Amino acid sequence: MDKVFLLSDVDEFYDQLVKISNESDDQEAAQWIVSNPCFEIWLYYCFKNDPETDLASLKSFDAAKRSQEMKHLGNMLVPGGLNPLRAFEQMAEGIAHSREHYAEDEQRIPLLYATQMHEMAQYLIDTMNRTANEYNEFIQRKQAWREKMKR
């Protein structure tokens, strides 16, 4: 059976996420993936790995405004912005970077600069590679195509 991932930003949803977290116990079929401040932190980790420097300005915003600032910063930090299509190719780096900066509060909600997306990304890579090595082959094809375009 496939697994269902439910994605949420922390934003102004902190209290609802705490309630969900306390009520959730079966993660076999469905799993919440929470990012703080927002999904774009995952995209950031696919390209970069210095949130304390690059994203320091987020601390000056209240939780509800951090997502907007994160979206704004993405275009300044990475040429072309935090492109999810390119991030798919960078999932291995994103997983490593996300794990490095992952921390939760006492309510099991990710702290600022933390995301649980590394769990979903690892599941996707493992599932795609399990039978046909699809993810690794996709990455190899993309790299070969880029090399061809450079020449």
Plain-language structure description:
Helix content is 57%, strand content 10%. It is mainly α and 151 residues long. A three-stranded mixed beta sheet has the order 1-2-3, covered by helices on one side. Strand 1 (4-9), helix 1 (14-23) and strand 2 form a beta-alpha-beta unit. Helix 2 (40-47) crosses helix 6 (91-100) and helix 6 runs antiparallel to helix 7 (117-132).
Write the layout of secondary structure elements.
Blueprint: E1 4-9, H1 14-23, E2 30-36, H2 40-47, H3 51-54, H4 63-77, H5 84-89, H6 91-100, E3 114-115, H7 117-132, H8 134-150
Helix pairs in contact: 2-6, 6-7
With helices defined by DSSP (H or I, 4 residues minimum), what is the helix count?
A: 8
State the strand order across the main sheet: 1-2-3
Q: Separation of termini?
A: 44 Å
Share of residues in strands: 5-15%
Helix content: 55-70%
Summed over residues and divided by their number, the pLDDT gives a mean of: 91
Give me the strand/helix succession.
EHEHHHHHEHH
Major sheet: size, sense and barrel closure? 3 strands, mixed
Q: Any low-confidence stretches, pLDDT <50, length ≥5?
A: none
What is the overall silhouette?
flat
Structural class: mainly alpha
Please state the CA-atom Rg, rounded to the nearest Å.
16 Å
Number of strands: 3
Question: Summarize this, please?
Answer:
The protein has about 150 residues and is mainly alpha-helical.
